[in-house]
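Ligand-bound model needed. 5-amino-5-deoxy-1-O-phosphono-D-mannitol.
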Amino acid sequence: MCGIVGYVGPRPAAELLVTGLRRLEYRGYDSAGIATLDGDRVLHRHRTVGEVDNLARKLAAERAPGTTGIAHTRWATHGAPTQRNAHPHFDASGTIAVVHNGIIENYRSIRAFLTEQGIEPASETDTEALAQLIGYLYHDGGNGESGNLLASVRRALHDVRGTFGLVVISRDHPDQLIAARRGSPVLVGVGDGEHVVASDGAAVIEHTRQVVYLDDNELALLTRDGLRASTIDDIPLSKSVSTLEVRLQEIELDGHRHHMSKEIHEQPAALRNTLRGRIDQNEGTVVLGGLADRERELARYQRVILTGCGTAWHAGLIGEYLFEELARVPAEVEYASELRYRNPVIQRNTLGIVLSQSGETADSVAALRELQLKGATTLGIVNVVGSSIARETDSGVYLHVGPEIGVASTKAFTGQVAVLALLAINMGRRRHLSPERTAGLLRQLDEIPAKIERILAMADAIRDLTERYVERENWLYLGRGVNYPVALEGALKLKEISYIHAEGLPAAEMKHGPIALIDRGMPVVVVAPRDHTYDKVVANIEEVKGRAGSIIAIATEGDRHLAELADAIIYVPKTHPLLSPLVTTIPLQLMAYYAALARGHNVDRPRNLAKSVTVE
Ligand code: M6R
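Prediction:
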């Protein structure tokens, strides 16, 4: 979603800020803007609709001088994506500029108050109400805020409800940035005589690896050499400096045409990283450092609740099968957006697992807090190190799949499934799994990356097959058991980047309504590896064929029977049935990618979507 970059230091700010915005493009946005401060204490603001390129072109023609500045990519929530709604927003006097991620929930009442004071809004946004409120307090506040920028920001943040990651500059304080956070990430890159503040490490990494993460209700006053952190209530804080682990090469295309394609092909290496050091083949055990002394508690949980959104929720559904089958512990999965408002019943000895690539998804963060409030022990399965969920859970296991930039989640999904398998095997071993069965499962898990390599080698054939069906506007995806969530994930991938309507279903559910959709040639992707549901899935395939649908089967290598039945077939290597999602998912990712390419869409930046949904 929205992205923030701010700079104070000796270098011209504009170019650096625009480069930072480019690093945040993957998050999704619809307009962009920048404000810089020059030595004459003039705020120079430029805003454009659409790509950051448009802003860069504008800046090439107009002036944006100064060595202090803020910039923003906006994903519209309040008000259309227009130039006047783009950030930065000014106060009425044009003294103060603000960029903001999140939502100011009480902006209407703030706006009404400001209107009473004779301040009319210049945009439809919630952010402008905050900028105007800071300006009002700064100029007219009367409670000690008057003329004191920091005090005005504090007071305004006290009065707003909602979430924010924000940066404020003022032409009266040309060498200062004020950054603050509540519910939306902000980190400060600490350079040599400069500070770069951003909502995401990707915008900081080429300047410095040393960062300070702000926590909720914290604020930082930044100058070239100074970082003064405090709570919003003005209690001084001493913050530790962390090191960003991400390398620049990892967030660049590195010769690939799209991040999504790069990330699909990275999966063998990514999963080797996920598994590295976590499987002890000699002992036949799982070693999860992130659980530390909590690992032994895995034996006592009586219930597992898994939660997340989108693709992470699909991984959670696979987790449900894994925990019940391998650990014989009752497991259930719930959308984070539902769990947070449902007043769930949490018994003692419940383990709440929150899955999230970004670790910043607003609903998932809220679900985590709800689980904690009700007494569950929480565990995060997260990719982004230092993210909100990673820091707030009682314990966690990182995916270690590297930065995921493509909006369509791919390697994070397989990473999540691999971590869930490790956890379920670990929990199972502490309950009833024999050493032999455990060792067999771990061996098969270890072999998955090499098996994915074999599927990726068939990418061209998968492209050709996809192109045969790409004109069709409606697709079905069917699967059973642990491959039912794979069908859901395949359908989600296809719709989010190719804009083809696709529905994922448990194969047997097709008969209860959706079968009415099937007409001649409708693509029906059936995930049908050899497992205990195989014969049932074959029966479902016959039903589709009876209605003249076109079957695209994802089958286990050597399955001749399905080759005869299906109109097209993609083989995946044999593995343990419970681990099969790690291989059956790969062709579905490639199909979605090639379908979007064939339709001429921007694969990495699909319309209307954001990489990380940090607002409700
Ligand atoms: O960062 P998270 O894993 O919490 O994100 C959850 C979903 O927003 C995400 O998986 C989304 O569904 C992807 N676009 C799917 O490809």
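Residues 308-312, 356-358, 361, 364, 407-409, 492, 496, 612-613 surround 5-amino-5-deoxy-1-O-phosphono-D-mannitol (CB under 6 Å).
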